[in-house]
Amino acid sequence: MDDEALTPPRAxxxxxxxxxxxxxxxxxxxxxxxxxxxxxVPLWVPMPREVxxxxxxxxxxxxxxxxxxxxxxxSGIMLALYAACVFPxxxxxxxxxxxxxxxxxxxxxHAPRLALQPVIVWAALFCSAxxxxxxxxxxxxxHPHD
Length: 146
Prior knowledge:
Elements: H1 8-32, H2 48-66, H3 69-85, H4 87-95, H5 107-127
Helix pairs in contact: 1-2, 1-5, 2-3, 3-5, 4-5
């Protein structure tokens, strides 16, 4: 059992794979069907269709960057910032009850999604080794390639 313990490097690796897949899928969806996201874009965002397309490209770049060791840290930081920046769209989606094809419209969906947004920010930072919290580092040297 000790061989299969979830150590910080293993946790980072598993989370990195999951987050990369999630962001790649979201990025493709933003590019494939930008119209589906337009209703939740806050009204103060200029050029909403273009912004949705750019966010799709950002998600794809971040997903790829997480898998490239020398780009991992900056990709994680950028994905964390990205997750914070799209939070207003998630709030609008929830508060205004906007229907988006393929997504539930109940608070059973929106409440966990909104509550997990800070976790997604943390996950991007953790899996890219931008932070080790809540784990303690076992050495003074950082591990940018785990």
